Amino acid sequence: MGPASSEARADRAADVLALARLAAEPESVHAILAWLTRRTGGLAALIGPTGTVLATPEPDPDPDTLATAATAASATVEPRRRGTPSAVLGGEGGHAVHLARLGHADAGGGDEPPYLTVVGPDDPRCGVLLADAARTLALCWRLEEAERARRRVESAEAHSREAVLHLLMVGSVPAAQRIAGALGTVLPALARVYVIECPVRRRREIASRIDQVARGQAWIVPCPVRSNHLIALVPPESQGEPKRADGLARLIVRRVPECRIGTSAEHPLRDTAVGYEQAIHALAVARGAPQRYAGFGRHTDTTALASPEGRLWARELLGPCLRYVPPRRADPGPQELLGTLGSWLSFGGAANRHLKIHRNTLAARIRLISDLLGLDIGHSLAGQSAAWLALRLHSAPPSTAEPPAETPAEAPATPAVPAPAPASLDALLSSPAAELWARAQFGPLDEAGPAAVPETVRAWLRADARLPAAASALGISLPGARKRLARAEEVLGRSLLRAPSAKYELWLALRASGSL
After folding, report:
1. CB 464 within 8 A of CB 381
2. Which residues contact 291 (CB under 8 A, 6 or more apart)?
3. 426-451 tens-digit pLDDT
4. What number of other Cβ atoms are within 10 A of residue 371's Cβ?
5. Strand pairing class (219-222; 229-234)
6. Running DSSP on this structure, what letter comes out for residue 400?
7. What is the pLDDT of residues 50-97, one digit of tens each?
8. Are the C-beta atoms of residues 249 and 279 closer than 8 Å to each other?
9. Residue 293 in contact with residue 250, Cβ under 8 Å?
10. Is 433 exposed, middle or buried (CB count within 10 Å of its CB: 0-12, 13-18, 19+)?
11. Sheet containing 229-234: which strands, arranged edge to edge?
């Protein structure tokens, strides 16, 4: 055995060790291709079964690199047709193209493996180097492909879970249950909504903790609107300590002290949107609470306004939207418009992220809905509050004393009594029940004192919930007005400055009291 042979074996051993070290790096495929490019003096690339350039030394190659890789891609066509595992061919411009297949044709579950190619060097030892590199690169490529597939599956499941939450928020419970069932999960009949405000990097950890405590029965979704929010629907029997609604919340804040948690009351699935709003209101309280979590403790819904007259008013107000026929099939229909309206009233300009549409599409829909309803829901708090109340009353279940709405087939041919005319919003808010409800809205503020806090809330509502205008009307600074509203949030136990906001209910209460 001569000195040249011993030197060649030593070089090969060093190359194999270098490949093993590179295989442990995070971007191992790119790292190995970059090393091969430096080692051979040519361009190393990975070519897929259809001649696609799968990888080059750099994640974002320049045009010259892509052009050279295209030469390698064209050179693999004939060897692939013949099933050749390795070859040295003449490429364009007189450059040699060395290629080696990464494994057998049945590797990776039946997929045809890619080729490792090197364009440029005219070195007989390049074939041995490629053979060694191909074995290591095959393992690295399969691992990266498996990781990409895992991320695709994880992303698809995350989008499906978000779709289920969206359907629940708009009241489409059967559709949500079907998708959840396809994912192998049964949605709970009753659930408490948790909104966890936390650093983005801790969301996965918190979700894992909730899933562990709830024994896999919780429905956990990163908020599609706010990146630092995590939303969880947790069955009442899976919240940690027995008979303690705050058991799970205490466990989470103990593990992640920087998070804040708001929880709703228990609700059936059809009322998930109400539960979410309650959790957001509780979160506003939790931000200032020493224990860093809070539950929604006040009963402030619009049941008092859900009379037959109120439901009739809501149907009349939403009627143009409910009867809307889109001019094109691709345009949104009535239910999609109502979903857009609800999202806009909850999230404002961030509704496009919730609905997964472009902001220009959202603006066009809001203009259309405003025209249909005859309300300025884009800028006027009065229009927004009326639309918000109509949506609530429209989706509220009818009382036992209220007869069901007749369908055309059931309606008598000659009604004995003409249908009553729908009440106006002012008439609806002037009923004794509405007046009691209105006093309950502002009662905690008026009783807590000082008077400057409820005065600021009223000025803010009269200014269409615009804080600078309210501060100017009161003759105080903007930070001072914001501080007073934050104090009002503590007293009311509800969110004012962040969406979803209690501003619609408070505006309606102010209207009912005759203070507008």
Report:
1. yes
2. 250, 253
3. 999 998 888 888 888 888 888 877 88
4. 10
5. antiparallel
6. T
7. 888 999 998 888 888 888 888 888 888 888 888 888 888 876 666 788
8. no
9. yes
10. middle
11. 219-222, 229-234, 190-197, 260-268, 293-295
